[in-house]
Every structure is written in C-alpha cells, then in structure tokens.
C-alpha cells in the first residue's frame, strides 16, 4: 500500500493542473449536493418547527362587522370534529397611518392588523421562537417589515391620524406562522392590550378571525361547508392551514429546488470530466500499463493502482464539499431561518447532507472502477502498440489550392477529425450558458408587469382594491364616477368577487372564489378555451380544473346564492392567487354577496403611473391603490429575492466551470498532441500560430455551445419554470428575455473568460520540439 501511495503522490505532482481542476469540479458537485440537501431540510424543519410551536389554525374565516358570539359558540359545540376554536380581534390600521422614519407605509400593499397575544393557539413568536410578549408602549414588528425596511430593536413606530399620535418602541420581531410569507397579503403587529384599546378610539377598524383546530382526520373543506351553511359570519376571506403552509413553502422552497437541480447537472458534468480524464490517462499510459502486465502485474493490481488515485481524490473532495456546504447553505437558508427559525431537528441537516455525499461518493468511485477495469482488460500487445489510441485518431485533407487562412483551415480540420474529444467541453459550455441564462430569464419574467397575467387578470397599470367594507357599493360607485371623468385614464374595468360552491370529485361541495366582470377590457390568455361568454359558462383556474377533473366543455354543478345551477366550462386559465383555485363567471352576485371589488386601469400614454396612483390615494384614502409593478414585486418579493441570489451564484459557478474545463481540456490536448505540435514547428509554424489554432478550436466550440445553451434556456426554461410554479397554479409560463444581457453581455463575458484561459493554458506549446520527438 505504501508503494501505491507513493506512486499516487508522484502522479499528483506530475499532473498538478489536471488534478487540481478535477478536484475543484468534484468539490463543487459535492458542495452543491450537500448544500442543496441542507437547504431543503432547513426549509422543511424550520416551517415544521414554527408550526409546531406557534400552533396555527387549520382553518380560519375573517370577518368585518358585528357577529353573534352565542351563535358562534353554539356552532362550535354542535360540531364535535372541532378540537378548539378562537376568536382573534384584530385592529386594521391603514398604511398611511403607520409611520417609520418619517415615511408612511402607503407604498406597501400589505393589510396591517394589530393584535394582542393569543391564548390557546395561533401564537406570535419572537426571534427565539418563544411566545412573544410586549409591554405598554412597545410593539412587535412582523419579520417581513424588518427585512423590507431594516427596522431594528429600539426604533420607533408612529401611529398617527389627524391630531392623534402614538409612538411605540420596537421591542421584538414577530414570526407569524399564518402571515409570514410575502405571498400572504396581510401582516400582524403585536401590541399591549392597553395600547390597542387606546388606538381603537382614534383609528382603525375591527376585524375578527374565527380560527379552528380540528380533530385528527377531520377535513377543513367539511368545516368550511358547514360554517357557510350555518350562516356564520363570513364578511372576509376564508383560509385553510394547508394553503398557508403551501404559501410559506413556495416562498422559499423554489431556491432549494433550483440548487439541487444545478447540483445534479454539475454532478453529471463532473462525472463526465472524470470519465474523460481516466480514459485519456489510460490511453496515454497504455505503454506503461502494457509493461506492468508484461513483467507480471495482474489486472487487479493495476486497477488498484489507478483506482486509489481517484478514491483519494473523491474522498478529499467529499470532505471539503461537505464542510463547505455549511456556509454555502447558510447563505441560501438565511432568509428561511430569519422568517421561521432554526427548526426543531437541526441534526437532520447534517445527516441528510452526509447521506447525500456518501451516496454520491460511492456512485463516482464505482463509475471510476468500471471505466478503469474496462480500459485495463486489453492485452499486453494491444497496450504496447497503442492500437486503441490509433483507431481513434482521425485525418483531414488540406485544400489543393493552398492555405489562404492557414491557422483557421488547420484548426477547422483538426476539429472535424477529433470532434469526439471536444464533446465534453461542448456540453460544459452549453450547460454553463444555460445555467447563467435560466435564473436570469426567470428573474426578469417575475419582475415584469406582464407577469400579472399569471395572477388571473390581464395586464394593466394600476390596481384598486375595494374590500370588506360596509360602504362597499358606495365606494365602488364613487371610484367608477371619478374614473369616468378622468381624462388621464385610458380604460378601466371593475370586477366583483364572491364565493360559490362547486361539487368536487368526491361529490362534496366546496367554496371557490369567483370573479365577474368584462373580460374583454383586459383580456387574459387562456390555456384552453376562452372566457365565459354567457351566464351559464364558467372558466376555471388551472389548479381548480385539475382538482375537479374538468376540461373545456364539461358540465359542473354550482350553488350560487342558494340556487343550484349547471354551468359549462368555457376555458382554463392560470392563476397563482388564492392558492391557485379561482373561477370566472358572469354571475350577477347580489350586492350583499359581493366581498371585494377590484378595479384595473390603464393610464394614457405619457402619464406617470406612480403620480396617478398617489393622486388616487389622496382622493380615495379609504381604498388600497397600487401600481401593478409594485403589486407584482411585493407579492412575489420573496421569490424574486431568492431568484436573484440563485442567479448570482449560478453566474459565478458557470464562469468558474468554463474557466476550469477550458484549462483542463487544453492541458490534456497539448499533452496528447505533443508530437503533432513538434512536427508543426518543424515545418514552419510558430508558437503563436499553434496557440491560435488551439484557441480557434475552443472558441468555435464555445460559440456553438452558447447558441445551444441560449436556445435551451429560452425554450426548455419555460417548461422548467412552469413545472416550478405548477403547484401555485401556473403551468405554462412565457419566459421574457432581456436581449442585451441574454444575447450580448453574458455571451461576451463567457468568450472573454475562455480567451484568457486559452492565452494562459497554451504557453506550454513552446516546450515541444522535433528533436525531443527524435530522441524519444
């Protein structure tokens, strides 16, 4: 064994560059695999841990206005599947009345409620995941605003309306198992019971959350149906616990999916590199292997010699990658930990990543063993003659008319006859280009206002929310009258929202949110079919259609305002709001059954959207008014921030891959072609000519690979992104490309990286001369 280790040590010294590059490839593969697994487990553990400690409700119904406390208590008593219940009293305060560092929160679309700490369940936790408490004059701030505004303990939040003003000192940050995610449009602040009673005298509107815990095996949809049939208070949105968990997971889970996907691709590339190097090494050393066999070394002993090198390399890379995954995953998990905490089973992060690294090590080692065994099975004479090597050599003919562009002609000829040697580098270049552009395109798509079409509505400039108010109709009429007279408004449409009951696959009735309005003003692209054209047609969101098992043309039973009706499905569209389960129909809701009016409008060309939004806010200060660009960015803010982080990591990794593979391949090519290089010099080619020829080969491959990688990112990227968002309600995404970055900036950066690698790596051609070949 000592002799084998000495031989391996000498081999490492002899091939420092190749060994180092291969080690970096393997380390990156192990690091990403372990890091992706750690990130995934952290997300699962953190969300699970927060839910376990905070005990969020399994179903909640929000309500504005008065309610009958005795009727609610009787409902709970009469349904034995209800384990526990809670009525949370929440004071909703307008964003314009909340001030931090001299600025209101008007530009934020979140609905902000102020509550005291709950008893029994649905606790608000501090940053140690303990039940948070605040004293008189203090306030607990949701972690969402801590991240968005940079709020620190000791800062002052001012609540002001008219002449009344109250300053509250930030004493803690709040993790809210219900409303943590940016995808959740409401946030809760924690205050003292004395302060909230004082505040309610001067500002805000009371809203009630009727919350439930269920016995094991009980269904949230059953509770929802019974609740509505009993006529319980429901002037607000109803939310299931599973929907809240899904929103929390989606906000941070996409990053883990992408990291693991990148790691799998990188593992494939690393294994291909390893395979290529082993075959190249065995081919180059075939004479030496033949001599070893000739003097009595068995095939197993020779295999052991070569395997030991790669076993050591893999084990060292696995150890470094496993350790390196700790800070790597911490970077990607920082947002998760901030929002949800460390979780309750931290040890599982270490175990899962260790299992992943161990399995990957076994896979790579067994792969190396198979390749080495196959290469060492040749006879002594085949090895000494180098017959396999000669069989793989190709030939090309020079033009009879002479060489007008000698370096290009020779580079192209050598590439034609040795193209198989460059398959690996082509794949790495294409993969790297794909890896750079996919996160870039996804981020650009999410940030674009047209992404609103995946929220179930057509593209517009401004969104106006009129919701859950006793003056709902009056506010809707006032907004419509004002917009009719506003010359700066190009067009607008008012959509009303209510709930109906739809019979599902199991034959049970479940509630679904339905939109009614003129679909032609802000048209929406449908996956299948079209918008409902008459009062007996209904369009379903992608997830609703999937769960109900309905296609265009199918019939569906609907209970609307106490009447059972039969509708025909006219179309299926994409919608990532409300858990992706919505519908559109020309249902003439009674005004008492309308929960929300949402107005979408476009301004005339040249009108500043932000200024128009501010103008409307000043005119209708009781209504939420948001530019659509802000609406999309805030709703998907967590996903966008995570994608930007992935985008940056992908760019760094890809450029590093390009640099490493170029250096590796050039070193191997120069070593294998030393005879050809010496002959070229003998017939008059300079060192510069030979370096140019090598560079041309690589650059031609890279330009073709960039083209393929770009096409893959633009087309297969849509399928990948659609798969990622399919659980949210969007299955077919149109990728929006930023042309300057996609087609100019990043391809140019890749070419520059390769050019620099070529310049540095080809310096070694000066060491090869014809006299050395004659001596050999």
Automatic annotation (TrEMBL):
The keyword Repressor does not apply. Pfam families: FtsX. Residues 261-375, 650-762 form the ABC3 transporter permease C-terminal domain. It is found in: Cell membrane. The chain crosses the membrane at residues 254-278, 310-328, 348-368, 422-442, 649-670, 698-723, 743-762. It is a multi-pass membrane protein. Keywords: Cell membrane, Membrane, Transmembrane, Transmembrane helix. GO terms for cellular component: plasma membrane. Its main location: membrane. The keyword Hydrolase does not apply. PANTHER family: BLL1001 PROTEIN, MEMBRANE COMPONENT OF PREDICTED ABC SUPERFAMILY METABOLITE UPTAKE TRANSPORTER. This is Putative ABC transport system permease protein.
């Amino acid at each position: 064994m000592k002799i084998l280790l000495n031989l391996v040590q000498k081999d490492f010294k002899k091939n420092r560059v190749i060994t180092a590059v291969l080690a970096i490839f393997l380390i990156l593969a192990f690091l990403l695999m372990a890091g992706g697994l750690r990130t995934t487990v952290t997300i699962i553990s953190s969300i699970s841990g927060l839910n376990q400690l905070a005990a969020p409700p399994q179903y909640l119904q929000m309500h504005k206005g008065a309610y009958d406390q005795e009727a609610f208590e009787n409902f709970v008593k009469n349904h034995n599947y209800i384990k526990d219940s809670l009525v949370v009293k929440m004071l909703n305060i307008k964003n314009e009345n909340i001030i931090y560092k001299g600025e209101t929160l008007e530009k934020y679309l979140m609905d902000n409620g102020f509550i005291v700490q709950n008893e029994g369940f649905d606790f608000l936790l501090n940053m140690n995941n303990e039940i948070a408490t605040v004293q008189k004059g203090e306030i607990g701030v949701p972690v969402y605003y801590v991240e968005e505004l940079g709020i620190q303990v000791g800062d002052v939040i001012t609540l002001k309306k008219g002449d009344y003003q109250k300053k509250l000192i930030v004493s803690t940050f709040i993790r809210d198992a219900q409303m943590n995610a940016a995808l959740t449009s409401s946030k809760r602040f924690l205050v003292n019971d004395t302060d909230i009673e004082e505040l309610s005298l001067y500002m805000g509107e009371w809203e009630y959350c009727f919350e439930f815990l269920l016995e094991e095996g009980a269904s949230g949809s059953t509770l929802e149906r019974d609740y509505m049939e009993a006529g319980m208070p429901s002037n607000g949105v109803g939310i299931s616990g599973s929907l809240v968990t899904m929103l929390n997971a989606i906000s941070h889970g996409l990053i883990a999916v992408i990291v693991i996907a990148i790691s799998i691709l990188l593992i494939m590339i690393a294994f291909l590199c390893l395979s290529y190097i082993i075959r190249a090494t065995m081919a180059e050393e075939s004479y030496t292997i033949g001599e070893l066999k000739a003097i009595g070394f068995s095939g197993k002993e020779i295999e052991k010699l070569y395997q030991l090198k790669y076993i050591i390399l893999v084990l060292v890379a696995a150890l470094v990658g496993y350790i390196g995954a700790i800070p790597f995953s911490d970077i990607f998990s920082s947002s998760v930990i901030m929002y949800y905490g460390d979780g309750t089973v931290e040890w599982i992060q270490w175990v899962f990543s260790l299992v992943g690294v161990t399995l990957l090590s076994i896979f790579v080692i067994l792969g190396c063993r198979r390749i080495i065994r196959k290469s060492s099975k040749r006879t002594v004479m085949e090895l000494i003659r180098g017959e396999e090597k000669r069989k793989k050599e190709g030939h090309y003919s020079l033009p009879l008319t002479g060489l007008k562009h000698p370096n290009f002609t020779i580079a192209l000829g050598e590439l034609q006859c040795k193209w198989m040697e460059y398959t690996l580098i082509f794949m790495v270049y294409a993969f790297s280009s794909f890896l750079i552009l996919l996160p870039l395109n996804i981020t650009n798509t999410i940030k674009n206002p047209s992404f609103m079409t995946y929220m179930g509505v057509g593209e517009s400039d401004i969104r106006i929310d009129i919701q859950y108010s006793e003056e709902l109709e009056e506010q809707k009429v006032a907004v419509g009258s004002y917009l009719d007279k506003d010359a700066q408004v190009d067009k607008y449409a008012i959509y009303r929202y209510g709930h109906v009951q739809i019979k599902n696959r199991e034959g049970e009735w479940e509630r679904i949110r339905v939109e009614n309005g003129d679909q032609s003003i802000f048209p929406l692209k449908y996956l299948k079919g079209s918008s409902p054209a008459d009062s007996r047609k209904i369009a379903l969101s992608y997830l609703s259609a999937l769960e109900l098992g309905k296609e265009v043309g199918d019939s569906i039973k609907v209970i609307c305002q106490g009447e059972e009706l039969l509708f025909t499905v006219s179309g299926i569209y994409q919608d990532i709001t409300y858990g992706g389960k919505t519908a559109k129909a020309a249902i003439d809701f009674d005004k008492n059954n309308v929960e929300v009016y949402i107005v979408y409008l476009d301004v005339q060309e040249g009108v500043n959207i932000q200024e128009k939004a501010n103008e409307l806010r000043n005119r209708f200060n009781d209504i939420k008014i948001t530019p659509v660009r802000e609406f999309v960015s805030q709703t998907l803010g967590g996903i966008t921030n995570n994608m930007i982080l992935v985008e940056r990591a992908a760019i760094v990794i890809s450029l590093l891959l390009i640099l490493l593979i170029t250096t590796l391949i050039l070193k191997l090519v120069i070593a294998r072609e030393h005879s050809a290089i010496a002959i070229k010099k003998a017939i008059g080619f300079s060192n510069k000519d030979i370096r140019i020829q090598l560079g041309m080969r690589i650059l031609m491959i890279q330009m073709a690979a960039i083209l393929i990688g770009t096409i893959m990112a633009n087309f297969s990227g849509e399928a990948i992104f659609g798969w990622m968002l399919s659980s949210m309600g969007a299955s077919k995404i149109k990728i929006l490309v930023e042309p300057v970055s996609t087609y100019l900036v990043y391809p140019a950066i890749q070419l520059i990286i390769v050019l620099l690698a070529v310049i540095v790596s080809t310096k070694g051609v000066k060491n090869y001369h014809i006299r050395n070949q004659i001596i050999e």
